[in-house]
């Protein structure tokens, strides 16, 4: 769309008439609510790569140093924990039969076992990013960002009787509501920073804010009328809708936190990038800018959808990623998987580079972040969900020491998530199948 | 005041009460107690050969417990399951080869004949189940079309809105069409852009400003009537527009809320009437009554849809868009509930140019070829398979489907036809004469004709660098025969990709599937079909040789039927009319309802198929039968949970 509905100036102009705010919140002076965080914020992001990896080239080598796949991360070695042995038990069949790819995506960040269904009564669990967003997301204009390169599956069944909702989303707001992701770098940029070529005048902006409030007022009334006519499952739909309405209201209220301008080191992308790698780089750069401007503090990034069968012409690989992942020990295929794994890591490195480049009060953004990279599938040929390939990048605002190799044999990935949430001051007792914290 | 009836005009309400409650039993009667020979003839066979894996144990294999069935009627009520059992009995897929003892041929015949006979009957007293469709959020294409028909604005949401998730193979399933906050943000922004264009658009006077200051509606000078204010005109416009946007009569309190927005707009726009309407239009476009296809909850357990709701089901099924004025009028008077009117409307809508939406949206999803858009073929081997050609392949199937629909041909045309549509690129791929843009061409070569041998299907079931016997075989079982194989056993892939095996010639490689009983049961159904299509390369071009060797496309199906090459295989598949029709009915019903077809829908699918077969398989008969069917016209109350 042409420009943002709301900017910093909107709020200054139109702060008077708050509509639809919960009573309690509206009673507080705005300045108090909006007070900038006293400390430098700590961010969390979760990157996902589908169909597992070439585990031999991923595991720590016998000689000191990084394994081959991780070579592109050399410059950040001091900020990275290379973790082996974690597992997501709930991604296993547990009597549900085939569908390891759908479960890889669905369980990765939720830690829960998804209900096997092609559509009716979809159910998995709230994902870690959303638990975080629900507790600390209120401090930023966007409680969380969901990013990816693939849209939804186009048709057909996605994986052995699992709805495509499981394979195309890793972020789950509730157990049955996935968070769709933004795939267009251009749209993501405009959503965060507006369209620099279509800056509105102050008067226009003020008018727009007032308009939007009036409209939301009307739809809130419509919704009340509608609710009385619906059955419970339909009311769930309406609740989802209203949650979106509230999020927009909140964006108006939180307008003072919006960056009026994007950081100088990034430009509005022109159109859809042709190459998958370029696509990832662009999205990652915008995510870094979102962190830099404190527009959000938590994000998920699906580098490709679950079970992806992408080819990599730029690497000279014409077979699909998923097809290759069933390598059956074939050296040639394993070599190609390694190449793909390393390619993804190179792209991840460009993201870390951006975070490293921005200095803040206490070190760099990378120092004040915890970025998880990996998936809930280990070796694509074995379809195993233990011995997961996981990285933790960033120092969590001085709470995580980098440059380490951590063996967490047999521990749930969820215990790592709990440790991360503790460091973000998120109050949570249990996540997925565990209440134990991983020692970081 | 929020009773279901208050939504609708009183005329419709009366029709609802008096016109339809008697039309079908609201409280289905229980089926009479079984007196059939199931217990005597069938149960002992199942006990001997099936219950060991599919019995009352805690976790029966494939989650299938056959011991819970007790009568012939219970077979009919669980049609899908028993169709599977029938297939597996006929082709000797079950019990697995390593199960001892194996049933004799006579025992297999007893079982399969009994199931066939049971499935073939229609139980007149069988309980009717409507099923429940969750209020359905407009998907992207529906949003686009609705905006076009409501306001005359061409808006493309595909670049902006997040993808619609897919369930049961389709992107219009109410259960999975969620409404994440990101989408609502997009709706707010889109509404603004659309309203901006709408009030200056070419069709504004027809669609929006149906009465306005200075227009013909203004009372003549000197008349006694009080002159109308701009707000009065706005009220007239919004009453009409709101009724179309909400796809039902708009209520007075709703109009008042819209007028409040008009007031805000008028103040901001300095009294400009047309510009002031932008704001209420934006309100309409963000209202849940616009974004959701609301179906109100009724009092009874199962109840007929209100006429306006039925109009929406019909228009979103056939047009992927809102009902037009004719439909809304028939809904308002309740006449739409009359079967003859409903049928006539269905036929009118199929012929309307907007009916192309059904071909355009259903076909690529039914054939599972949308994935072609994102597939990247090995450019060294298939240099022509660029995005353009892949799009053209999909377009061919859509135009073909549209022709079957518009000319009201037999549904069996999908299996074989003497015509198709090609443009220059496709003509080249097929080795046909013809150039330029898409045109209908006659086919004389039996190697082409029907969806089985269309490039889109052949390419979508290939790997980026080679054909895949298994994918093609699986596709035919799923899409044409409606007997999908179960998912592979967990470590099935190991055998497939064993490097020792990989070096073997194709046929020997595939023979390996038979050495493991876990794989054999399904692969003996898939692989032979795949062989039949080996004469088409990974993008669907004909080939006599593969890597210097003659293509081997002969095989034997599990029922013993032999064929040599695709022409003979197609002939065999064409004979499976019943299987194809029932499967196709199920897919179209899924799309029409926007929910998964459940086992309880079996009898409906069966009775629709039977009627269509009697009417020469005509496409229109299938659509009208679906529209008149119980699950399309009725809705089931939410039975709790949550």
The total domain count of chain A is 1
In percent terms, what proportion of residues of chain B is strand?
under 5%
Envelope shape of chain A: globular
Distance between the termini of chain B: 25 Å
Count of individual domains of chain B: 4
Radius of gyration of chain A: 22 Å
Structural class of chain A: alpha/beta
Instruction: Categorize the overall geometry of chain B.
Output: globular
Averaged pLDDT of chain A: 85
Helical fraction of chain A equals 25-40%
What does this structure look like?
The complex is a heterodimer of chains A (440) and B (642). By secondary structure, chain A is of the alpha/beta class. Chain A has a single domain (31-197, 261-423), classed as Alkaline Phosphatase, subunit A, CATH 3.40.720. Chain A has 14 helices and eleven strands. The model of chain A is unreliable at 1-38 (pLDDT under 50). Chain B is mainly alpha-helical and 642 residues long. Chain B has four domains: 1-25 and 129-133 and 302-351 and 598-642, no CATH class; 47-120, no CATH class; 136-293, no CATH class; 361-574, no CATH class. Chain B has 31 helices and ten strands. In chain B, a hairpin with a 2-residue loop joins β6 (545-546) and β7 (549-550). In chain B, α5 packs antiparallel against α6, α18 crosses α19 and α29 (602-614) packs antiparallel against α30 (619-628). Chain B starts with 9 loop residues before the first helix and ends in a 6-residue tail after the last strand. The interface between A and B is large, with 92 and 99 residues.
What is shown here, in short?
The complex is a heterodimer of chains A (about 450) and B (about 650). Chain A has about 450 residues and is an alpha/beta fold.
